[in-house]
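ERR on first pass: missing label on line 2. Operator R.T. fixed the label and resubmitted. Corrected input:
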Amino acid sequence: MSTIAYILMFALIACAISVSFSKNLLNSILIYMGFSLIMSVIWIILESPDLAITEAAVGAGITSLLFFITLKNIRAMKGDEENE
Amino acid sequence: MSKLRFSKRDTKDFSLKEWMDGTDDPMITGDIEMKPQRVHKDDFQTVMKHMRDYEKVERHLYDSDKNMGVRIFNKLYKVSSVIFTILLIGVMLYVVSYLPPVGNASNPDNNIVAQRYIENGLQETGAVNIVSGMILTYRAFDTFGETNVLFIATCCVMIMLMLDEKTLKEQEEQVQNTKYAPMNDPILRFAARILCPVIFIFGIYIILNGHISPGGGFSGGAILGAGMCLYANAMGFTRTAKWFNENVYKVAKITALCMYGLIGSYFYITGANGIENHIPLGIPGHILSSGIILPINIAVGIEVACTMYAFYALFRRGGL
Amino acid sequence: MGILDYIRYFFAILLISSGLILFIIEIYGVFRFSFVLNRMHAAAIGDTLALSLCLGGLMLITGFSYTTAKFLLVVFFLWISSPAASHLIAKFEVTTNENVTKHLRKEEIGK
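pass 2 clean. output:
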């Protein structure tokens, strides 16, 4: 394992902890997107590009899109809170 | 032709069609009037009264100054949660210390099965990409289960979130009238007009090259679904419905699943009984090679793309 | 290694290092600016200019091949998608933020 893999893994742990500690739900989703991107880079370092493509498309793209729509539908975004 | 046949009442075809459409239930005799459920709406005064009552009860219950039990419970809860977390971390680290190092030759994952996959994989499956050859031939049954999971998941989401057409039309008109909807933005439209073909071609490339280069049905289908989400966002759902509506969705999804089931079951039956199957393996490295992997990849790709787009459309507006 | 290779590597290093410097500027701007549109501008610089400079340097190093064409496609993709995304963010911010006149001059958004 190279040095960059260790750095990425520590970033992964930091992301995982800060998802649960962030006060704003939108922020946690954005951090989760970052988590998925770092994970896809780690998959490439571990020599499995199949998983990397899937992780980047599903984890960072579509899962967070669905989370955004859900937040919008339950009116949990920050702007809506201020208006009400 | 089919319209003529279905137009006669009291034939079996007609009653089957009625039952499929949901207009008639053969279990119920006689006519029943179908009424949509009325939306339950409370009076504003009663809602406020309930809220006030709830607040009063809550204030009384969780008053930590007066209530001795709540105070003790709060402290106990914090202490026990910290202890539990530390214990969990300790147990996990203890287990990790027993794991073998990565890349060791004597690890338990370097067993006969892995050796066989690596040595005979190219001859038996014809796929240059070993991972694709493994998950779509040796472990095709697993992947079939995963594809079914996707199908069932979309069915559940449709049951929960699908709206009827009248509400959908009203919603669509509302969206079209707003000035700030993303579909009324010319820059986004221009970008989508250029980007969507590139994304679609990239997704199809990944699906078709699943047995040669990294990728396959799942990743390519996810990319196709993402491209369709972009198209729907930029051009609006009414324009997307011209080429991808509910009927196309149903036909594509069920055909893909049945295709996978048929090809897969042929493969399982011949493989389990030791019969020679007649699907040619071809020359490794060519597009038309490696037997059943290419059609199965296409089926999985269609399934995943439909799932992704259906999730997006159902979450966004409650209809395809 | 001939003299042409040295010149090629020199230009590649020039491109990649300028791209990295722009990346640093981008990250500094994203974390230091207080207004959304300023931050968005900084991020857009990194997405378009810095990334294309870095990829151009890599293309110079590898020489023309199948991979280089893929790099070109990546640059093309980013040059279209990133400005569109930035435009949408800016539009959303200007239409929804009530205090936008604090940071902008009024006649710019009024007309």
